[in-house]
Structure formats: C-alpha cells, structure tokens
C-alpha cells in the first residue's frame, strides 16, 4: 500500500542496510499518518468492534464462576481462599497488634486492650539499638531522628500500620522468593516455567492485580498483603537464581567431595556463600513492599498510603505532603537498614568490637522491653503527648496558595507551552497511526533484532490492545510514556556522562537518584499537583522524575567501566577529550545505556499507572476506574495491555543491546 | 600392595547433545572428526591409567587439555560418558550415591584452584567443615582442625576469616581442610596456579613436606611442567583430551613419545631430572676420582664431577656399572642429544 510512497527515499549510494531500514520505517510512518482518510479502509483506522474478543467479559464471568460456584467437592474455591486469607492474617494481625493496635479482645466498643502496642519511646530505643547493631552509630542516629519525626508530626500510628504490613510482606516475599529461586536453580524446567510469570508480575501495574486479590481474598489488609508479596517477590527470585549460580562451581564440588547431601550443600554452602548478594534482593523486596503497601491502601491496607490518598482526593496538599514525607522517612530508614544488613553480611569485624556492640544492644533492648511493660501497667504514658506535636500542614497550604498567586502566569505559561508544543502534537500523531501499521512495524523491528521468535512474540503482544478494543488508550499510554522516556533520557544520559569519572560529583548525584528511587511513587505526585494541578503535564513531570534514575546510573556505569587500555590507546593516538568521549566511551557504553533506557521505560510505565490519580486518560485510568467499579475483567485486560507495552520495549531493547554486545564480543 | 588405588579404563567425557549414539558397550565408538562434525566436544577420551598407592601422580596439560575434567571423573564429581573409573577396584559409576558420599567423606580429599573457602566461616570453621558434615562432635572436630591448621603452619590464625589471609595462606587452609578427614587419596586441582611464583615454590615444598610425613596417594593437576617434575613420581601429559605419555620425569625427558611431549621436555631442568644411570657410559676400568650411586640425580654431584679431571664411577649394589665424566655432564646441561642409551 504505502511502500510505494517510500521508495524515492531509498538512497542511491551504498550505505549501511541497517540505516535503510530505519529511514524507510520513519518515512513510511510519516506518510501513513498523512494519508487521507479514504486511502485506507475504515477497519485500519479504527479496529471494528465486531472483531473484538471480549476478554474482559470472559475474565469477569470466570472469576464470578470461580467465586460463586467453583468447588473442589468437599469445599468451594471461596472456602479455600478464605482459609488462605485467614492463615495469612495471623502473622499480619500479630505484627499490627505489636506495632500499632495492641492486643485486643472483643469487637467494636466492647473491645478491651489486653496488652498495648509498643509505645513510641520503646520503639525509638529498640530501633536505634537495631540500627547500631547492623550499621553503627550513623545508622542509629538516623533511625532515632526518623522515628522521632514520625512521632512529632503525628504520623506515628499510620506509620506503624504501614511498617507492620511492610515487615510481614518482606519476610514472606524474601523467604518465598528464596525458596522459589532455589527450586529454579535445581530444576531448570521450573525456571523456564516461572520466568514468564515473573515478567508479567513485574511489568503489570499494581492496580491491575489489586482487583483479583480483592475478589479472591476480600477487602482488607490481607488482599493488600498478597498483592504486595506477589509484586515484591519476582526480584528476589531473580536475585536468588543469579546469586546461587554465581557461587564458584568449586564450592559445590567441595561440598560433594566432603560428602555433603544436597540439602547440606544448599543450606550450609551455597546460601551462606551467596548471602551478601541475597541481601541485595531482600533490600529490593523491602523497598517494593513499601511502595506497593502504599498503593494497596486502596484495598484496605490502611496506614500512610491511605492518608496520602485521602489528602490527594480532597486536595489537602499540606496533609498529603506530611504523610508523604513520613512515607519517605520510613522508606529511607528501611532502605538504609536493609543496605546495612546487606553490607554486614559480607563483613568481618574483630571479636572485641562485636562483644561490646552486643552488650550495648542487649541493654538497650532490655530497656525498651521494660518500658513497654510499664505502659501495660500505666497506659496513660503510652501515647505521644498532643502538646508536643507539630504540624506544618497549614504552612504548606499557605505556601502553595502564595506560589500559585504569585507565579500563576509563569507556571501556566510553562504548562501550556509544553502541552501545546509537545504533548498535544505527539498525542495526535500517535492516535492518527493506523493500528495495522504499528503492529507491522513492531513485528519488523522484532525480526531485525531477534529473528522470527522475537518478531512473533512482540507482534502478538502489540496486536493485543487492538483485539481487546483498548487501542486508543494504549496509544495514549505509549505517547505519554514515550515522551517521558525521551525527556528522561535527554536529561539522564548527559548527567551520567558528566558524572562518570568524577567521583565527587557522582557521589552527590547518587544521593539524589537514590532518594528519588526510594520514594514511593505516590509521593511524587504531591508537590507537582500543588504547582501544576491535575492533567497530563503533571503526570509527565512525575514520570520523568521517577524514571530518570536508571538512565543516569547505567550511563555513568557504562561510561566509567570501559577498559583503561582503550582510553590510553585513544590518548596515544592523539584524541582530544571530546573525541575520546564520542569515539570511544559513548560507542562502547551504548549497550549499557540501552539497558538503562530499558529500565527507564519500565519505571515510566509503573509510574504512569499511578498518575491515573491525577486524571490521565490512558490504560492506567482504565485499571484505576475498573478498580473503583470492581470490574475485574476490564482491570486485568488493561493491566495486561500495560504489561505487554513494557514487555515489548524490554524484549526489543534487550535484544538490541545483546546483539550489539555479541557483535563486539563483550558477552558477559 | 594390591592393585591400583585408582584406575581408568577407556574413559571418555563428551559434551554436546545426543551423546548416547557415540557409545557402544560402554566404550567410545566414534572418531574425533565425527564428533566434531556433530558439534560434540570430547573433553576427555581414551584415557587408560593406573595410580598406585602412595605415589604422587601428576596430570599435566595446558588449559583446555581436559585435565580438570579427568580429575573430576577420577573423583566421581562427574560421570564419564564412556569407560569406567575404578576406585579400589570398584566402578565409581556403579556405586550408589549413598556409598559414594561415604567414600568421599572418609577416603578422598580435594584442594581447589581458587581455594573454594567458605567466606562466612573462620579458618577453623572451614577446616572443621568436612568433619561437621560427618556429624562428628564439636570438641573432636575442633581439636582435629586445630591439629591440621598447625600442620600447615597457620597456628594462631584459627579465628581469621578467609578474606583476611593472603592467597598462599588461603590455600594452606584449603590443604588443611582437605586433609582433615585423613583421606587416602588426595586430589589437588591446580592448587597453586592462582599464586605468585615465589609462593608457588614455597607451597610445592609444603606438599613435598606433607607427603614425606603422610604418604598419601596424590593426584596433582598442573599446567606447569617444572611443577610436575618437582613433585611427581609419575607424570601423565595430556593434549586435546588424550594422554600423550605417562612416565617418570626421566622417561619423558629421555624418550618423549611425541613431539608435543618433546616440546615440554626440551627446556626442562635436566640436571634435576636425569640420574647418573641414564648419563653414564660403559665402564672401561679407568681410575676414578670417586663414585656416585646410579639412582642419584645429576644436580647432586655435578659440581664434584666437573671439578675433577678424571671420571667418576657409577655404582649400584657396590658394583661399578658405568662411568661419568665432565663431557657427559656438559652434554646434559646444554641439552645435547644424549649418547647414552638406556
């Protein structure tokens, strides 16, 4: 059809066929967009409703059948899920009782507190001691300051509810991930079977599986926890597989030579040897858990996430910000604690220091326990005194009003300029593309990078949104995500290049991006909504901020990791600094940079879904509103569509990077 | 002494897919060209050898020659594709897993190229590890481990962690650990390849010292011909998965079976390898400046012979069986073709 239009563009002189492919693709795409409506049959512009497969309805009726009538004979599916729910509730209730609610007998107004929750002062002392035990004085100070902040700003109870959920989910996620990972190492077929589920679980937006959880386990903390564990577990599985495989083969040979059984080899040799790497996985589990627990507030996890959500809904910026900062504080505390734990796993210290540390820690813990007991006898001393509380919420409100009054025209001008000049044209362009061409293009790129298998996989995934009737929403998602990724790359790659090889600058930047990555996605929205109100522009800024970190990190890593001989060779051939950058460093770092962009895309997608809260019109909104209406099918299908976008990007970029590395013999 | 401790009969180890079709009656039944054409690599093939009790048997080859695969077949870590590995006359692949575990626990010890120390255990914990696996009581295993640590000269460092030790010290820990169970057969898989040359020499002396005391059957893997010659009673030279020649260092130098073996022996320190017997000429009743036993290595008496204008007598069982003079010495040292036949 439109190939003819592109033929004049085919260059006459001989150049790299790779370039021909891309030039051709771009030209044809431009031509297709400009085609008059009559040039193509109607079904190419808009996927006909008659051809749609009612996946959403199928899923909905399947879950309905599952919950209402499916039965294993002796008991129904509902009984089973409720039993699992009860089982999972036990550790969670215990943790909540310890940290937040106290042990309570009876319900409602008859409730009698049998034993109180840990009072704030005991918690501060115990956490400080724990911080000292794993990370020394600095971490201890950090723990104390962070927890005091929570108490002073009146976030204590919510924070403890969140903490209890995070702790239980992290323990379950880490142990579950470790066991699955070990099983995958042992049986390769299991790894092959599990791998696609891990991909989907990681790329599917959290919103999408809150809903099935809700149906299976009912509204409440348990559903939230199951969703959290499912989301946080895949990285642990991956890390476990990698870490155990990275244990030198000799260690396993040693195990067999000393006559270890398989179990002994696994638990006495492989796991301890891989412990430092495994702790990195645990750290990830904790951070992801926190992130999801916040989102899962929507289905009853409660805690800080709920506070932010209600504040966002009522546009009470001050309150939202305070709760948001509390989340941040909690995130940083947990992250630093988990990092110190990971670091310690590989560290050795002298016996004397170890003993002294042990004494200090046990004394502190004893004091904390004694104080806790004291509150059981004297309940009056337990709560944090109202008079000592501070709140900055009103000031934030005033600040926002002031900024809006003073800078309204400036902010509005920026917003409108970006909207009119970037966002709207790109959006129109994406929506104007006929879906068959997009599917074809994705397939062709897949073929170029990875042959038939990849072409088929990505092609089918690209066709999915059209088939289920979500094409426009998908294109809006791609446009928002695409613009955000391009901006993130334009910001991130130069920063990465500049900071590589400048350790001082890098350390400063690392702190910034570490913090950006530690913050739960929710928190990003608050200040941006304050300044730019709801809409695509707000979403864009939030996505860019969240997704820029990997672009910086991978670029810096890729650029600084190049073998020094190559740089020396460049210097000796008389390269200028700029030439060393453009001729040596950048080309060699390209695969690494591509992987960074890949991560950026995935993060952008996960943030994008959250931005549904500020009123975008994309797949995120689909899942979010499906959640509100408890429409399982619609939510899951939209979620799968988002997951597919992520997986297409991931497969294509990874294949491109791998191809590049293989051609250069840089296979790791 | 009855039979060899370890023996290989037609052992082959292939890697690739669809290996079964190359094996007939437990033997490798395919030419190398066919294997290569089918994308199968033969890490080891057609290996026959006997290792007798108390000897130090060195398997020498360059990287990729299959020596590591062979030692893993010998220790039962991997099962050969074809042929059999006999440990005290029994086929390792026919012994059940349970019994194999017992054999490894009681009768085998292994030292690894990259030490394979467990990073989360102290020196003491690492050395005591194999004993712990056997479920020995703590007091006993600690005592035994301490004894081993002292034996390898690391006394006083029991509480250190592996990363606090130098490479040579780490390998001493590896040696102590492999000896802790009192094995009959001691496998050392390129144990000193990761160490500096000076430390390597020191560690070779250590092995010689320990072997002098303990009299184990040693299977030692190396890529270093000088190391092989220093330690070995017998050397097997491997190339492309095959054994080129097995013999004492002297046999390899005097009668290399292939050009490949010759290429190693050409620059070997002959004075330290050859004995008086292999350099002597027939005795012809001259008057002698002195006498040397026939089994003595040349380096031991080279100085005396060179200093004397008259030849020395080579004696065995108090009889003169030949004579050796300056010219013969110099022939040896400059590596001229040896006239003396054996």
What does this structure look like?
The complex is a heterodimer of chains A (668) and B (342). Chain A is an all-alpha fold and 668 residues long. Helices cover 80% and strands 1% of the residues of chain A. Chain A has a two-stranded antiparallel ribbon with strand order 1-2. In chain A, a hairpin with a 6-residue loop joins β1 (103-105) and β2 (112-115). In chain A, α18 packs antiparallel against α23 (577-610). The longest helix of chain A has 40 residues, at 393-432. Chain B folds into 2 domains: 6-265, 3-Layer(aba) Sandwich (Rossmann fold), CATH 3.40.50.300; 270-334, CBS domain Like (Alpha-Beta Complex). Chain B is 38% helix and 23% strand. Chain B is built from 14 helices and 15 strands. In chain B, strands 8-9-10-5-11-12 form a 6-stranded mixed β-sheet, with helices on both faces. A 4-stranded antiparallel β-sheet of chain B has the order 4-1-6-7. Chain B is globular and about 70 Å long. The mean pLDDT of chain B is 85. Chain A binds chain B through residues 248, 250-251, 253-254, 256-261, 264, 268-269, 272-273, 275, 346, 348, 351, and chain B through 72, 75, 77, 101-106, 108-110, 112-116, 118-121, 129-130, 133-134, 159, 161, 163-164, 181, 187.
Write a brief structural summary.
The complex is a heterodimer of chains A (668) and B (342). Chain A has 25 helices and 2 strands.
List the helices and strands and how they pair.
The complex is a heterodimer of chains A (668) and B (342).
Chain A: H1 3-6, H2 17-34, H3 42-45, H4 55-68, H5 77-101, E1 103-105, E2 112-115, H6 120-152, H7 156-186, H8 188-203, H9 206-217, H10 221-246, H11 249-257, H12 262-295, H13 304-313, H14 317-345, H15 351-377, H16 393-432, H17 435-467, H18 471-499, H19 503-518, H20 521-532, H21 536-560, H22 564-572, H23 577-610, H24 619-629, H25 632-663
Antiparallel strand pairs in A: 1-2
Chain B: E1 6-15, E2 23-24, E3 27-28, H1 32-37, E4 41-51, E5 56-60, H2 67-74, E6 82-87, E7 90-91, H3 97-107, E8 108-111, H4 123-133, H5 138-151, H6 167-180, E9 185-189, H7 197-214, E10 217-222, H8 225-231, E11 234-239, E12 242-247, H9 249-254, H10 259-265, H11 270-273, H12 276-279, E13 291-293, H13 298-307, E14 312-316, E15 319-324, H14 326-334
Parallel strand pairs in B: 5-10, 5-11, 8-9, 9-10, 13-14
Antiparallel strand pairs in B: 1-4, 1-6, 2-3, 6-7, 11-12, 14-15
